[in-house]
Hints:
This protein is an all-alpha fold. About 85% of the residues lie in helices and about 0% in strands. The longest helix is centred in the C-terminal third of the chain and has 33 residues, at about 50-85.
Amino acid sequence: MTKVCYHALPMSAFTTLQKRVFPVYFRLQSLLLFLTAFTHPPHGPLSLATSFGDLALMVLGGAMAGLNLLVWGPRTQDAMIERIHQ
């Protein structure tokens, strides 16, 4: 979607689209990670504790989702806004 929009839209419209879409993507990433953890068979999150590999991947996914949501998302938005005002 990003590449198509980048080529099809004027830069101001593309920046506005990105500003609206990426926070939603980052929130959905976090939500889907939690849904995955809570529906992990057979006993939800407690089952993750029995498998180090599964637990490590969920922790890694959570760390990346947290970074996207709390660090990279706001920084990207600030950079886009700054780029508009140049």
